[in-house]
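Backbone geometry:

***
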Amino acid sequence: MARLRSDTRASDKHTCTAFKSGRGDMGIGFREAGEDAVSFRQLAATFSFLNLCILAALPLLHVSLTPYLGTLPLRLFVALGLGFLFHATVFIWVQTRPSGVTDRMARYLTIASIAVNSVITFVAATVSNQDSPYFALMIVPILEAAFRFSLPATLAVVALADSLSFYWVWTAYRVNPPPKFNEYVEVGTVSLIFTLVGVIVWLLVNRLRKGEIRLARNLSELEQTRKRLSEEEKLAAVGRLSSAIAHEIRNPVAMITSSLAMADESGLAEEARKEMVGIATSEARRLEKLTGDFLEYARPPAMEKADNSISDTILYAAGSCRAYALEAGVRIEVENALDLSIGMDASKIQQALLNLLKNAIEASATGKSVTLRGLRPEEGTVWLEVENAGPAIPEPACSHIFEPFFTTKRGGTGLGLAIARSIARAHGGDLTLRINEPERVCFRLELPATAKPYVQPREKTWVGS
């Protein structure tokens, strides 16, 4: 398009006639300010970078096409420089602002960015007298409006870009008539492109935002459902636990009551009386142990972590169970005691291992062995495994073995495994049933380990006979 110099002046108010100041939507509509405030840092940086690239490329293009476009006018050069400085400042400020950008700041920065590009475009239309690439500066404002404004506001920015295009043709041919129809057709084509870009981008962005809103709503509903289910599971667990406690306490209390009642009967032989008192005493001790185990499980374990030797912990647990194993005719085999020191509460880990070892010994037949081993599969993890050669745990029981008061042993409290897992999880680890096969049942106590440099494991050690 042939462009002719004109001395026509224009006020900066032409650059933002489509907008009004306002809190929620700026008259025509600032779309979802709360959402924009969250994403504004990235969008502002992207748009500022695009503007910087265009403002740097256009004068270089103008200079390279000087024979056709003429010398770069000083006013246009100053306008380009000021625009470049503005967008560079916005880019740096948004990226380095520690407290983020408020809705009001996002609103005014977006308007200012559109206004600056519109002013530069207006100056280019005023001072250029040849075909000019400077209307490319209005592409970014249209994109900004499509991303950040409502549809009416986006169309207002498109109308501003179209008005600047037709204003240039009108000014040019007012100075050098007559006007050429093909120039208006060309400007109309550019305006149509501006409109299509603005509307299509707005529709795409709007569709994405609606999808994000639906996804956020679904995630919120899912989180609420998860919390509800968690609360219901807790209530159900409390109910099961209360029922189990009542059942476990009722039996020894009933035995104590009946035994003492019989012992108090007149005419009962002294030997029978002693037997009834002995039963009551035994049940009272069982009740005391049950209460102690329950308190141990219910009370969150107080960890006193320090650098402790895995080897000493393993050997202590094995040594403590030696007499129990000899009485049952079972031997304890220790493999890979791990000459390694990790941060843990040694007494609690020993307690967990003792529970596992006693269960394994009780599940083993005479002449069999129980294996206690330490493994370090990778940096930051230690495994302590207790394996016995006994019958597999019934499949229906596998999902319940860590529940309190669940037991398949006669006279067991069902708290040993629950307490051991509680200790493991208090250390940031876990207790799992690793292998459950006939003649091979293995529990693994996994611990996170900020360990000292690894040392070659000890040779196999035997404890017991």
The mean pLDDT is 78. Residues 65 and 71 are 9 Å apart (CA to CA). The beta strands are 306-309, 331-335, 341-344, 369-378, 381-388, 430-437, 440-448, 461-463.
